[in-house]
Amino acid sequence: MRISVERYDRMIESGIITPDDRVELLEGMLVNKMSKSPPHRIANNKVRHALEAVLPAGWYLDVQEPIALDDSRPEPDAAVIRGRTEDYSTRHPEPREIAIVIEVADTSLRRDRESKRRIYARNGIAVYWIVNVADRLIDVYAGPSGPAEAPDYATTSTYRPGDAVPVVIAGAQVGTVAAAELLP
């Protein structure tokens, strides 16, 4: 049974869903969040440190927190958000305020490549990174289709250790991060 984001939010507010319930709402369905292996945890920390070092003023990195999408409340491993965290004291960031969404994938690779990629593209998330721990590469998707019959990204670039991953915010490259700095 699909549920609305409004109902999901009410379930959280009323305590029906708690932080101990490792779930997120994807396309109206409650989905169990994947457990994190040590390499996943290490990659999360490396992503955080690498991106925080290149973010320009007016942007911050949110880690494993919900974002507000049309029929989903994913909790990406990281997201580059406009403003300050205090700007979102009464609501979650929306697509127009999100520059990059990052998912670290080991056991979640299929979900990240399929359903989450579709969700982020449909909602117009400008740049989507998958840090693929198992294959030691970073896929960067750009040019979201927005609402479409089969939402997707226009371009995919793959970066391996030794490559520099461009950090693009609001259509401008603000720096690069060594791919090896993102991988465990």
SSE blueprint:
Elements: H1 5-13, E1 23-26, E2 29-32, H2 38-52, E3 59-62, E4 78-82, E5 98-105, H3 109-122, E6 127-132, E7 137-144, E8 153-159, E9 164-169, E10 172-178
Parallel strand pairs: 5-6
Antiparallel strand pairs: 1-2, 3-4, 4-5, 6-7, 7-8, 9-10
Could you walk me through the main structural features you see in this protein, from its secondary elements to its overall organization?
The chain is 21% helix and 32% strand. With 184 residues, it is of the alpha+beta class. The chain has a single domain, classed as tt1808, chain A (Alpha-Beta Complex). The chain has a 6-stranded mixed β-sheet, sandwiched between helices. The protein has a two-stranded antiparallel ribbon with strand order 1-2. A two-stranded antiparallel ribbon has the order 9-10. The radius of gyration is 16 Å and the shape is globular. The model has no long low-confidence stretch (mean pLDDT 95).
Which structural category do the helix and sheet elements fall into?
A: alpha+beta
Note poorly predicted spans: none
- The gyration radius over C-alpha positions equals 16 Å
N-to-C order of helices and strands: HEEHEEEHEEEEE
The share of residues in extended strands comes to 25-35%
Number of strands: 10
The 3D shape can be described as globular
- Say which CATH homologous superfamily is assigned: tt1808, chain A
Number of structural domains: 1
